[in-house]
Amino acid sequence: MTVQAINHGLHNEPPIDNTTVAKLAEALTILLSDRPAFSLWMGSPMIGDTGVVLDYEPLDIGPAAAVPVDPYGDLVTDVRDAIARLCGPGAIGHDSRPGHMALFYAGCRQDNVDFGSALRRRSRPSHPWILFRTLVLGWVRQNPAARCYERDVVKRFPLREPAVEAGTRIVAAGGAAHGPSAPVLLPAASCPHADDATA
Length: 199
Prior knowledge:
Helix content is about 20%, strand content about 30%. The protein is built from three helices and seven strands.
């Protein structure tokens, strides 16, 4: 999942320099120092013209909750503010909201109806819980030939461990970033068997 692309290529902004990236890493270290890990209720898979993504639902804690709990939305707002302060408001021209996780991108064209039918039969559960424990600041670029995004990590930001009840299942998954040759901040989902499960 992309938290925020910085000077997204679609907006014809030049990449930020390494000095600014280093300052941003320092600012984010302070911002994220005590932020707890969080879980998102993801899915179902949504099929578009170019790939398949999972959206997510903010948590609604009981009928008395006046506002849904949205740790990811709060994170995006805080990070966008930090980037705008250091890099200028033009650096956050691309808004990746509503939040979504890219599962894969299409390498050919086929009938969406047939593909959607196969996806519904084989994708279970269609609404996984995913625990996000790490954020990654990195340089991300598209690789059209491989139909994927590649990244060079600048810095990882571990989130504070949440209280997890015994027997809770932690699911690992990864997300792709949007934007060619743009530095982005990504949440990395992890589990006891995967130190970094982003893609």
